[in-house]
Amino acid sequence: MSIERDNRPKRTATLTTNDQTHALPVMSGSVGPSVIDISNLYGETHQFTYDPGFTSTASCESKITYIDGEAGILLYRGYPIDELAEHSNFIETAYLLITGELPTQTEYDEFNHAIMDHSMMHEQLLEFFSGFRRDAHPMAIMCGVVGALSAFYHDSTDINDAHQRFVASRRLIAKMPTIAAMAYKYSVGQPFVYPRNDLDYSTDFLHMCFAVPTQEYKVDPIIARAMDRIFILHADHEQNASTSTVRLAGSSGANPFACVAAGIACLWGPAHGGANEAALNMLREIGSIERIPEFIARAKDHDDPFRLMGFGHRVYKNYDPRARVMQQTCHEVLNELGIEDDPMLDVAMELERIALSDDYFIEKKLYPNIDFYSGITLKAIGFPTTMFTALFALARTVGWVAQWNEMIEDPSQRIGRPRQLYSGYTERDYVSLKSR
Ligand code: CMC
User: Fold this and answer.
1) Catalytic residue, candidates 137, 272, 313, 320
2) Does the annotation mark 371 as catalytic?
3) Averaged confidence pLDDT in the chain
4) Residue 313 is a catalytic residue
5) Whole-angstrom distance between the N-terminal and C-terminal Cα of the chain?
6) Distance from the Cα of residue 414 to its chain's centroid
7) Sheet-wide strand order for 65-68
8) Cβ atoms 260, 171 nearer than 8 A
């Protein structure tokens, strides 16, 4: 796919409002829909545009990730997600997302070293964990500890210094597995396992999660590869809610650790990263193939707030390309672990089959998304459901820092400041307490 800039003569769109006609510049990207530039609209017309949920609004220009939701295509810097999932690894994908190009061997080795040698945390940060209840949600711990990194790494919070930005990005990617693993260890009451620089990123993460000091623990390479692929699939997804949160927080000049903590908070919601946890809970609740019709009927009932979790997407109106890789990874993991009959997988496959042939889901173009199969896979690897979103946050950190860096380097970057359609009271006089 060509990534050339559109050099055709500048186009305009015409808007007529208050009996006046305005020519609005139309900007074309390398691929995908063009955008109508309305940045001067308020100045010219004294009117705002209205787009709750940003369904038709491009909030920035980006060169990182491209999605064609109708065709079910996802590209990182031009490379299809399934090719990266098959041939690349998470560290190489991180390099690609951040720098724009696949690394040479020397670049790869240097980057890998820069990440793996910074996986330890300031020892005092470990004390933060004991401030949480043992049953704290790992995402609550992640929000707190990642935000707290800003209090420990003052030498990488000057966002105007490119080197400090690189150091902060490297620290975030390097320390996120350590923080996530420690959040898990804390919840099960086991001692923290320190990172090991001789292991690769995903093997090290699994080791920190599942090893105990009393015996040697060898990570299954097939499971480590599956974990790595899950990280690749989650690494970036253009201007989704959490990435937009990171960009918005960063637009005020906030430091990168604070911005990523904001992204984690946004990711936690069940409509976003929390959906994998919700999807698994739903499969558990359905329990057996016989009960699927009951849940399909509930999902179609407008008076019932229930939705099929792991189905539907704001952008994909086709099969989520990540879901295909995830489904295959799920089967590989279950095979490797010798889980031949997982009742939840049976329910998932039958639910998918029924939903994909149901008129309601066909008409609304609701297809399984990445979260549909990731929960089953992560559960089989040994993670409790509460950890699912934390793993998503770990992987998405790469996308967050790539997008944050791109935003800081963009000369047109300004503080993000949406406007509103005000429908509250107009001015009225204050009434004293005794007269109310
Ligand atoms: N089950 C049943 N009906 C659904 C579902 C669903 N999962 N998703 C959407 N619909 C219906 C919805 O009721 C609406 O119907 P109508 O037009 O008759 O009112 C129509 O489809 C459009 O839905 P919407 O809520 O307006 O679409 P949206 O783009 O605002 O929401 C979504 C996208 C992902 C939040 C939504 O599909 C959803 O809640 N899905 C379940 C949660 C989920 O799996 N989220 C993970 C997203 S992928 C991971 C990530 O990127 O974070």
Assistant:
1) 313
2) yes
3) 93
4) yes
5) 67
6) 23
7) 65-68, 73-76, 79-80
8) no
